[in-house]
Structures are given as structure tokens and as C-alpha cells.
Amino acid sequence: MKRILFLVAAALSFSANAQTQFPEKLSIGLQAGRTTARGLQVEGQQPNTLEPIRTHDLSKGVFLQYELTENFYARSSFKKAALSLEHNYQPSFYEGYTYGIGPDNKQLELSAGYRKKIYKGLRFTSSLGATFIDFERWNLPVQKASKAGPYDVTVSVDQVKERSVLLNGAIGLEYKTRRDNAFLLELAYYKGFSTLWQFDFQMDAEIDEAPYQIHYESSLKTKGDYLELRLGYRMPLQKFVNLYSAIKNPKPKPDPEPDYMQQSRFNGKYWGLEIGGQNFYSNQVQEFPDHTLRMKPSHVTPSLTYFQGYQFKNRLMLEGGLRLGASSVSVDAIETLGLGSSWSLLMLTAPVSVKYALPLLKDKIHLVPETGFWMSYIHKVAETDYYGSPNTSGPYSNIISHLKGLGQDYNIGYHGGLSLLGRVGKHSELGIGYRFSDNFSNKPFALHEIAYDYNGVPQPTIVSTARLQNAAVTISYRKFFRKNNL
């Protein structure tokens, strides 16, 4: 009986200790990455060049990480991504063209990792794990390819499997701050073992010499392999527990310090981070013989900005930064086809701003108008046809989404906005804002078209163009560099 009581007491003690340490060892994080399809296989007869194209997509997700020991950890991630398959079909006797598909997928990943200290807060990390991947249900029956000239070229897509398991491995760097938050930079590879998608090509042509008629078949296969370069940020769950405790049991407020000391801490150099949702606008036209339909569809893409600046004593601010995000061109065909389509292209922007802080509520909150200029670079895109799964139960068929870059890789524009900044510490501020941006040039950077048939009759093409006009809602954090006497 004594042994039983001893074991129960030990178990309760261990359970209480584990519950106390659990929030300290568990952290929650966000991640975003750039993926590239790998391991593509070309099979079949090759009288031509069927060449896979290296494609790039964006992934985003959340993860939980549990610290097993000081050097070992376990991680569970959930993310959404896309697997774009593009290839250039170039017969020896005709100009080549690019065709592609882009099925979305959801992924659940479990992995175990090891890290080793390099210097102070910087550590090398490595991990191994498995990923369950679930693709959207998607199929493309045989249909004639566009831009095939006099030759009869057809394409089709066979979704061999909807779900699969991939093995993954990653290496990277982790920087841990003094407040136990961590920034992550990782390079991961995901490996599949059975075919998931098969992109088929078939070509028939008539020639002037024997055998007079030719027939070729080839296909592009993938097992779901891809390479990912991702950024992440995580913070301990204990911080949320401490926040709840602070709200439930607030500490008595200390005596207020003089205004001149408080104000002096918010002058000088500062740095900050901004996350935002950029709503990019497109100009859409569909011309019928007797009328024209015009719309202005939009699509939201995320962005992350690092900035530095200087605030003068008169509250004027000069600021510059570097923003990583994605531009977008979209088509709204919901009323016509029951679908909408958007293309997002990786974009790097360098904004420069002038701001002025108007004090509210005794300098605790500031209303900040801003204006400035920006320069951006957009990753060049090839002319591509993407095929959508048609609505076989309705009158619409042969739905083809076409994207074409128009050579505007570099763009210069202006922006203006308004934000609210509130002080949350001795040297820190949080803010929420709105910003509108537009391009100086009227030339669009990309063109997006959707062609379709209605009851077998081709309809006027829906044409949409975009020139980087967008409105953004932002959340920002900025921190002033500490002065020696403050």
C-alpha cells in the first residue's frame, strides 16, 4: 500500500511539474516560403523538346514547436501551398510554347530537429520528418492546346492520387533574441515516392514525306517533390500565459516620469517590421459585338517590410525600407463561369517615406500621415497557358487561363497613407495603418486572359491587366535605439 501511495504521489508531482513547464517549452510561430517543384520526369517519344520549367510558388503556414531538451525539439506545422507544373513544348518544326497547371494543396508536417550553438544567439538547425499532403480534387480531360499552329496538339491531366506522404529534411539558421523570440531561415526538401500528377501531351501532324502522318505521345510526371526556402518567427506560449496573468492581476502603476524624459526616448534612429495585406486592383474588359463589360477585380497578397528611419525633435520622420511581397493580376468570372482566377508574382519593393507625427492623448497616441516613392522589381514570367478543370455539368468548356508578362519588370511609383501609433514600452510603438500606392506609368506589367466556349461556341475572351495599383492595411512595430543615459 505504501508503494502504491508513493507511486501516486510521484506521478502527481511529475504531472504538476510538467504542467508548469509545458507553456515554457511550447512556442507558436508563423512561416512563409518560396517553393520550387523538383524531381520532374519526362517520358514517352521525343521528336521535340518537352522541357520542364523551374516554377516558383508561395507557401504560408503556422507551427507549434516543443523543446525536448536544450538542443532537440519537435515541430508540427500546417501550411497551404501550390504545386505548379510548367513545361515548354517545342517541336523542331514549330515555335515552342509554355503550358501549365497549378493545383493547391494543404500539408500537415511532423518533424524532429537538432540545433547547435554557433555564436551567442545564432544556432545551426537540422530536422527530419514526414508530411501528409492533400491536393484539391482536380482533373482535366483531353482538349486541344492553344498556340499549336497547324499541328493538332492536345493536353490532358491525370490526378493519379489525391493524398500522399512525403519525407522531408531541412537545414537552417535560428537567431534567438534576449526575449526568447526566434527568427528562422530554413532550406527544406520534400521527397515523394509515388506519382501524384501526370501531364500528358499528344501530337498529330501531316508532313510531305513518308510516313506522311506522325503521332507522338509524351508526359510530365511528378511525385510531389519540391524545394522550399522559408522564413519563420516564433515566440513562447508562456508569453500569452504571462499576459493573461498580468490582465487578471495588474501591478500597481509606478509614478509617471517627466514628459521631457519620455519624449526624448522617441527621438533619433529607429528600426521596425511591418506586415500587411496588399489589395491589388486589375482592369478587366470583355468585348461583345453590341456591348462591353468592364470590371475592377482585386486580390489580396501578404507582405513583410523591414524599415529604418530617423525621427527629429519636431516629430518629422524620414524612413526607408525593403518589402518582400507578391504582385497580382486577377480575373473575376464568377457571374459568367462561376470562378475567379488570380496570378501572384514575387515582388521586391524599396519604399522611401516622409512622415509627421501628430500627438493625441498627451503623446500616448500619434496620428501619422505619410507620403513617398517606391521602386519595385517583379520576377519575370514566361507566356503560359494554365488549364482549369471545366464545369462538365454546365454549358461551359475549354476553359484556358493565359498569363503573359509585358516586360515591366522594374516599376516606380508613389504612395500615401495614414496610421495610428501607440507607445507600448519605453522605446517601442505598435501601429495600424492604411496605405494607397500607384504606378507612375500607365503601362501594365502583366496580362491575364480567360478563354472559354459556351455550348461549343467560342466566346469573347475576358482580358484583365494590372499595373501595381493597390491599397494596403498594415500592422507595424518600431523600436528606437536606446541612448546611453536613458
Defining traits:
2 domains, Porin, 486 residues, mainly beta
Describe this entry's structure for a reader.
About 10% of the residues lie in helices and about 65% in strands. With about 475 residues, it is mainly beta. It has 2 domains: about 25-230, Porin, CATH 2.40.160; about 260-480, Porin. The strands form 4 sheets. Strands 3, 6, 7, 18, 19, 25, 26, 29, 30 and 31 form a 10-stranded mixed β-sheet that branches. Strand 18 and strand 19 (about 290-295) form a beta hairpin. The longest helix has 24 residues, at about 1-25. The model is unreliable at about 5-20 (pLDDT under 50). Keywords: Signal.
Helix/strand layout:
Elements: H1 2-25, E1 26-37, E2 41-44, E3 48-53, E4 57-67, E5 72-82, E6 85-91, E7 97-101, E8 104-119, E9 122-135, E10 140-144, E11 152-159, E12 163-176, E13 182-191, E14 197-206, E15 213-222, E16 226-236, H2 238-248, H3 259-264, E17 268-281, E18 283-287, E19 292-295, E20 298-311, E21 316-333, H4 334-337, E22 339-356, E23 358-360, E24 365-378, E25 384-387, E26 396-405, E27 410-423, E28 428-439, E29 446-454, E30 457-458, E31 462-466, E32 470-480
Parallel strand pairs: 7-25
Antiparallel strand pairs: 1-4, 1-16, 2-15, 3-6, 4-5, 5-8, 6-7, 8-9, 9-12, 10-11, 11-14, 12-13, 13-16, 14-15, 17-20, 17-32, 18-19, 18-31, 20-21, 21-22, 22-24, 23-24, 24-27, 25-26, 26-29, 27-28, 28-32, 29-30, 29-31
